UniProtKB/TrEMBL annotation:
PANTHER family (UniProt xref): HEMIN IMPORT ATP-BINDING PROTEIN HMUV
UniProt KW Nucleotide-binding keyword: yes
Keywords of this entry: ATP-binding, Nucleotide-binding, Translocase, Transport
Pfam family membership, one: ABC_tran
Protein name: ATP-binding cassette domain-containing protein
Amino acid sequence: MLELNDLSGGYAGEDIVRDISFKVEEGELFGILGPNGSGKTTLLKIISGLLPNSNGELTLQGKPLTVYSSKELARVMAVLPQHTEQFFSYTVKETVSLGRYSHKKGLFQTWKENDEETVQKVMKQTGVAEFQAQYIHELSGGERQRVFLAQALAQEPEVLLLDEPTNHLDLSYQKELLDMLKKLTNERKLTVISIFHDLNLAGLYCDRILLLEKGKIVSINKPNEVLKEERIRAVYKTSIQKQYHPEVPKPQLFLIPEDQEQRKVQINESCLRITDEYISLSSEVYLKCMSSGVTGSGTGWFQTFVNRHVPKTYCCNNHLEEMSGYLRENGFDPSETIGMMTAVILEDVSYRFFEEESFSVFIVVTAGTGNAVDASSSRQHEFMQVPGTINTWVFVNGNISEEAFIQSIMTATEAKVKVLQEMNIKDRLTDTLATGTSTDSILIAATQTGEMLQYAGTATPLGKLIGHGVYTCTSTALKNYLRRGKQ
Ligand SMILES: Nc1ncnc2c1ncn2[C@@H]1O[C@H](COP(=O)(O)OP(=O)(O)OP(=O)(O)O)[C@@H](O)[C@H]1O
């Protein structure tokens, strides 16, 4: 559709962009990224024919751009520049209608039915139809931006060039605009070439991205390849971290602000509160967590942790909703709380603080084995989700990596299984040694301050402390539970 070969160009004889070669295919959403002044707008101006190239070739649909008359070019290509100067005395509809000009022949132009249809359609698509009779100087920056986009779409182009189209748009219109462009590229095979400042929007929506630095191509590839942590740090000279979007397999980059060091706190017994109804732990700062709680499951940052006692007969169709209601009634915000349930008498909880030279862990375990299961033969069970559970909380006063979070779960689980084996806890159905209960929950929470602890396997200092700590607390909690059962 569009091809650049060794293209250079700039202003007043000075090249700003140099040796640029790439192809954009029909129906692609192609992003141009780069720091301020890297030459994005200059490149877009050359592609649109607004600025001549000093070197190289530029072809559109196989023909050099220079052979197109301006009207011919406007029928194939529409441009939405970065700062569109408003034409003050036009209404929205009149402004959008100007987009139809390239489709008119001769001096006396007639307004046809399909012109009206196209204008109405694009005004609807861009959400400006409702104020079509208003003057554009009466609109907000974002509304005006959408009007000019509608004007570009009214040209019914095959290639749409956009310079930061989401500039001025609020969150929902950013999404709507990009969803719309994506749809047009998929359904109408519109080719979109767009400058982005927001790397995350580019990562979410672009098929491919070109990254410019000082007028030259640094990388041109799929978003995941271009948006590599090291590369973006080097090109933008800033501290970022890359992670995947939680819902779609697209890269997202997070800025790491300076002077936002976590305040140093220690999680220990003084943060714990035990009542007949629940055990809660409150931290003065947010802790980075990985958990299988009823509320707050997965990874996130939390300050409040609740292990709630429920009767053995507890049965509920929607335990998340029920638990959220319970938390709210008791003054906890369910969206900010990791909440678990247990039928165990909470007095039988076991908790202890374990310390090494540069880090420590605080462990809290409630243990019941009413639902004890041998995981290797759990297929034989038809489970009723009744609470008879081992809930394990591991608080690390230290800074732990993602892999250490996962290894902490493994190490804690291994220590728990060891206790069940030693205490000869059996799966009642299979009469084999149990490895857990069917409703066990775990929480690993870390203050993320102090020395970096990269690993938590059983051979590492952190793993050793967690293994020993979970083993000790689970043993005590289970003994308490079994003793109560005998009484
Ligand atoms: N009309 C002009 N005449 C001369 N130099 C210009 C002109 N427009 C831009 N430049 C220079 O070209 C360089 C690249 O500018 P350009 O606008 O292409 O960068 P950009 O990547 O789009 O930047 P931004 O992210 O800030 O919009 C800058 O150093 C700029 O000063």
